[in-house]
TrEMBL record:
It is a multi-pass membrane protein. It comes from Dyella lutea. Residues 32-146, 181-295 form the Thiol:disulfide interchange protein DsbD N-terminal domain. The chain crosses the membrane at residues 325-349, 370-389, 409-430, 451-475, 481-505, 525-543, 549-567, 579-596. CDD domains: DsbDgamma (cd02953). Gene3D superfamilies: Glutaredoxin, Thiol:disulfide interchange protein DsbD, N-terminal domain. Its main location: membrane. This is Protein-disulfide reductase DsbD. It is found in: Membrane.
């Protein structure tokens, strides 16, 4: 059997398509058609070093194919990726989906010239058609350009090594339309300011059309060898570079919080050296630049020490990281108890309530429910405590509820809530055959179900911050490992305590209603809070990754529902029928996998009217102007944050208060990973969001408010700050 070369096959198909498109014209009068060079008049401009500008004037009733343009370089010239505008999209009868240009088109072709090159030689191939009678497509046409190189390009010496790579980056990594390159000092402005004795803020400012490489930036402290600068880079723009591969770049302006590790030794001045590299969009790449800045460090006085004490996010004046372990444990116990009343935990506790009612008056069953549920809660808090304290010790910005910054965690949790809701609605009943696998999860009444209910209660409790919790967690992040883990375990005791009391105090157990048919109705009713929780998690995911992520989540939920439905249908059937359940569950993973590869939305929602988006520079500007500022660090997944907004911050009373005190409402969004906001949370020893800090009019350190707000607390704080 003779094999056909794929390239030849494509060529044959293309020729057939062109002949078919030209066929009807053979019987028509083609004398009115313009010569190809008049139908598509090509002009070129090589006056700008590194970029060849091309322009086509397209006659009326003619068009060019975008996908049929090719560019070939002559000797001594290396071409980058051509920058072509989007064309008119439509479906061609022979070529399929195509883009075409009418009237005119401007294109830019980046290039680099070798040493000694004086001419810019480029072959430009294009193809177009006449779209009215006589309808005909011209064969591909090539024009050879031979232009003198501009002086800057012709006289340049050929860089070697890393310099050569930078030149190629300027050609291959071009992203836009450049103008005349600016001097490095104007293209990349760098400022630095100290926001605390051990923390800096670096800001690069670039005109439109310039970008900075993250991975080409190095920071050091000349003359202070014992110090190390630790930048917390914000999320940038992912860019696939032909030479550097996958890289991250920043446009316009980027603010980088920088921690100072090491003994400052009472320094009041610090020399900061930055080595960095950036490019002009579609133009040149600059050599590595080095800037040295002198930064004045503020003294760590008593005022600042008291501010750190107040900034723990606690609910009492004594809630500081330096408080004793006993007080922290009591606060953790109280915070865990209050967590049972938070709206994020109530849907899961409804599962536990049903299981307790099903236990009837049997003391043994009640104790078993209580103990296995408590084991799930305690083990989950232990794992969470080890993870948070360990990662914080390693310098990572992780706080209470930060796992919900990961879209995959949010999606998985939504699927779990959806599956539990289906079980409580009676769509599927997990039988005893799954007892060894734990697949019954929270819907089962056995030990596996009780344990998983405890785990799920901790996971969904993390978006909530109850009173007393902020102080206890702040202590945990500053205390030794053993004391920190004790605080986390005490939070678990507080969360599990109500069910422990019911299980081990017979008088309380006897107050529970007797089991009956009404319990099945109650179980089905309680499924709807599960569905609402899944909806809330989907809303959080939409803010993190946009509408496409919601589509993937819904596909995963449908596949999961199909798997559970078939699992129920296959009861008593052949074991092979259960393979379809595994296949459907495996398919459920596919949309979740693609969800993990989705980048954050390029444009986040702008701040609402009357709200200023948080940035350290803007905060410093407002404070320098003597303006009182109310800073609100929040997240879409933070239920406590949303409750505070609904009851206090998103009210006419609060807006009137801002006008009366002249204060500015500044909000930071920690829904996604954000090192700038994480640095602010660390500065005020906050374990997570919400964090509310009021900065006074006349200067001085900010005052942190409790995590659960009231209108009175906010009014008193802003009134004091405005005087």
């Amino acid at each position: 059997m003779r094999l056909i070369n794929p390239g030849r096959l494509v060529a044959r198909l293309l020729l057939a398509a062109l002949s078919l498109s030209a066929g009807p014209a053979l019987a028509q009068d083609t004398s009115s058609l313009l010569p190809v060079t008049e139908a598509y008049k090509l002009s070129a401009d090589a006056s700008q070093p590194g970029v060849l500008k091309l322009h086509w004037d397209i006659a009326p009733d003619y068009y060019l194919y975008r996908g049929r343009m090719k560019f070939t370089a002559g000797e001594g010239i290396t071409l980058g990726t051509a920058q072509l505008p989007d064309g008119d999209k439509h479906h061609d009868e022979y070529l399929g989906d195509v883009e075409t240009y009418h009237h005119g088109i401007d294109a830019r072709l980046p290039y680099t010239a070798a040493a000694g090159a004086t001419r810019l030689q480029v072959a430009v191939q294009f193809q177009g058609c006449h779209e009215v009678d006589p309808k005909i497509c011209y064969p591909p046409h090539t024009e050879k350009l031979d232009l003198p190189l501009p002086a800057a390009a012709a006289g340049a010496t050929s860089p070697t090594g890393f310099g050569a790579t930078l030149g190629k980056l300027g050609a291959a990594g071009a992203l836009g339309a450049p103008g005349t390159p600016l001097p490095p000092e104007q293209a990349f402005r760098l400022d630095a300011v100290a926001t605390a004795p051990d923390r800096l803020l670096l800001r690069w400012s670039m005109p439109h059309g310039y970008y900075l490489y993250r991975d080409k930036t190095e920071l050091s402290t000349p003359g202070a060898g014992g110090l190390k600068l630790q930048p917390a880079w914000p999320a940038g723009t992912h860019h696939q570079d032909d030479y550097q591969g996958e890289t991250v770049i920043y446009y316009d302006e980027v603010e980088v919080p920088v921690g100072i590790a090491g003994d400052l030794g009472g320094r009041h001045q610090l020399s900061v050296q930055a080595r960095f590299q950036g490019c002009q969009d579609g133009g040149i790449c600059y050599p590595v630049m080095t800037r040295t800045l002198q930064v004045s460090l503020p003294a760590a006085g008593a005022g600042q020490a008291s501010a750190s004490t107040e900034a723990t996010g606690g609910d009492t004046a004594s809630a500081a990281p330096h408080d004793g372990l006993l007080l922290a444990l009591l606060l953790a116990l109280g915070g865990g108890l209050v967590l049972n009343l938070m709206p994020c935990v109530l849907p899961v506790l409804s599962i536990k309530a049903v299981s307790l009612l099903e236990s009837g008056e049997s003391p043994a069953r009640a104790r078993r429910h209580a103990l296995t549920y408590t084991a799930g809660v305690m083990s989950s808090f232990a794992v969470l405590g080890v993870a948070i304290v360990g990662l914080r010790a390693a310098g990572h910005a992780l706080g209470w509820g930060a796992q919900l910054q990961q879209p995959l965690v949010v999606a998985l949790l939504a699927c779990v809530m959806f599956a539990v809701g289906l079980s409580m609605s009676g769509v599927v009943q997990f039988g005893a055959s799954l007892g060894n696998t734990g697949a019954g999860l929270a819907s089962r009444s056995g030990p596996a179900g009780d344990f998983f209910t405890g785990v799920l209660a901790v996971v969904v409790a993390s978006p909530c911050t109850a009173p007393f919790m902020g102080s206890a967690l702040a202590y945990a992040f500053a205390a030794p490992i053993a004391a920190a883990l004790a605080v986390f375990l005490m939070l678990g005791v507080g969360l599990a305590l109500p069910f422990l009391l019911v299980g081990f105090v017979p008088s309380l157990a006897r107050r529970l209603p007797r089991p009956g048919r009404w319990m099945e109705t109650l179980k089905q009713v309680l499924a709807f809070p599960m569905y609402l929780t899944a909806v809330w998690l989907a809303w959080v995911l939409a803010h993190q990754r946009g509408a496409d992520a919601i589509g993937l989540l819904l596909v995963a939920m449908v596949l999961l529902a199909m798997a559970l439905w078939w699992f129920e249908r296959s009861r008593g059937g052949r074991p092979a029928s259960r393979l379809w359940v595994l296949a459907l569950l495996a398919l459920t993973v596919v949309p979740l996998y693609y969800l993990t590869r989705m980048p954050p939305p390029s444009v986040r929602p702008v701040a609402a009217e009357g709200v200023v988006a948080y940035s350290p520079a803007k905060l410093a500007e407002l404070r320098a102007a003597g303006t009182p500022v109310f800073v609100d660090m929040t997240a879409d997944w933070c239920v406590t944050c949303k409750a505070n907004e609904h009851t206090v911050l998103d009210t006419d009373r609060f807006r009137t208060l801002l006008q009366r005190t002249g204060a500015v409402y500044m909000k930071g969004d920690w829904t996604d990973v954000n090192p700038t906001i994480a640095a602010f949370l660390q500065q005020y020893h906050s374990p997570g969001v919400p964090l509310y800090v009021v900065f006074p009019k006349g200067g001085g350190e900010g005052k942190a408010l409790p995590t659960v707000l009231t209108a009175g607390i906010v009014e008193q704080a802003l009134t004091e700050a405005s005087h």
